Every structure is written in C-alpha cells, then in structure tokens.
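Hi, here's the filled form for the chain we discussed.

Project: internal
Contact: R.S.
Residues: 81
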Amino acid sequence: MNQPIDRLRCHFDLTLAEARLALHLVTGETLRSAAAKLSITYETARTSLKNIFRKTGTCRQAELVVIILTALPDCLKRPVT
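And the returned structure, exactly as it came back:
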C-alpha cells in the first residue's frame, strides 16, 4: 500500500471519493478547486468534507491538513513503482 489514497482510506476509514478530496485539500487546493478537478459539484464536495471531518475528528480544513500530514507525513510523496 504505497498509494497515498489507499493509505488515507485505511488510516481514516475514508471512501475513495473522500480520500481523493482530502488529498487535494492537503496539497493546498481550495474546496471549490478540488471539486472542479474531481468533476463533482461544490455541494457534493462540502458533504464529503463534512464526512471527512467526522471521520478524522476535525472541524476545519487547516486541522485536517495537520492531522493527515502528522499521521501520514509521506502521503504527498509519489509512490515508488
């Protein structure tokens, strides 16, 4: 399990869609930008973010980034193939 998305899913019990969104947010994207890149509506992204907050025990995007980078500091590195 070298893929950052797989690691996020396992560590925080996120769905695939939630993990993808979380990874975009960790890289510094806004929620609106991440939604556009993932081809989902802003409202869908907001709902997913609320679920991510619940699953990670956070309530702000800045907290979420800290929690993810603390738990999985190498999640932004490219996987070794």
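Let me know if anything looks off before we file it.
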